[in-house]
């Protein structure tokens, strides 16, 4: 999909007057190897595009910017860079919810499995006096509509800012290639795979509170800053923002399938890797092992997420800067 989007939609002719460096950024890159594979795929697709336009002699040099939070393990990232890579690598620390690059300096921006992270928890869900107060839960999928709406509003704000910042940084004709977990339109939010898992995590925390292992008030002041969008919601937000054309939009199946208790062990590892940082910051590290043991035992008992919820919940989106 990524290859096809670049082959058919990237306007390399528009770039020829700019300095002969093709700049790619992977925002929310983590430590690899996925980011290396994605960058290699983009490089090869762009290379083929130059060849197809008989511009092989003008093939630019490639610069890849790896972006993630400053506390990302950039040392691991840089020490495991593929030795045979054909690009110059640089790290860019900071949040993709803010400006990261100089004006009109990028040709392609890639983000995979990252844009579901909100810039912050919506304030109302932690405000005792708000109808959106999310008491006794850490997530919105099985909470009231007020809570869900507060999350959706935060996502809309974050996405608009993200698109504005990237629109400043990407040259006209440049592209953004996004891979995002989504819930299919028409399904209730509680039926998303992520929703099921995070709800079970919240319920494990509540069990610990009932046994006196955690202070319940601490749970009332914690919510996960993560949101699962839908394909239509993303399309609306991109169109409303106005800086990018939607060139490709396609639902596919997720790479991580959850089929039974054996897979739930792997799933627990993934969830732990994703949210351990925010949980530790709020609850301290002492509860983490116990929490994930309980989470695994609880989640593994379920018939698990029905396959219809797992199908088609990965969105590939190719956007072009107008
Ligand atoms: C699930 S990992 C995905 C890593 C990689 N892109 C992949 O597809 O395997 C999500 C990454 O996004 C990063 N991330 C989340 N919010 C971010 C933000 N606001 N700015 C930069 N990186 C962020 C996390 O630190 C994490 O490394």
UniProtKB/TrEMBL annotation:
The record's annotation in PANTHER family points to: S-ADENOSYL-L-METHIONINE:CARBOXYL METHYLTRANSFERASE FAMILY PROTEIN (PTHR31009)
Q: Which organism is it from?
A: Ilex paraguariensis
Checking InterPro entries in the record gives: MeTrfase_7, MeTrfase_capping, SAM-dependent_MTases_sf
Keywords for this entry? Answer: Magnesium, Metal-binding, Methyltransferase, Transferase
The GO molecular function terms of this record are: metal ion binding; methyltransferase activity
Pfam families, sorted: Methyltransf_7 (PF03492)
GO BP terms, alphabetized: methylation
Protein family (similarity comment):
Belongs to the methyltransferase superfamily. Type-7 methyltransferase family.
Name assigned to this protein: LAMT/FAMT protein
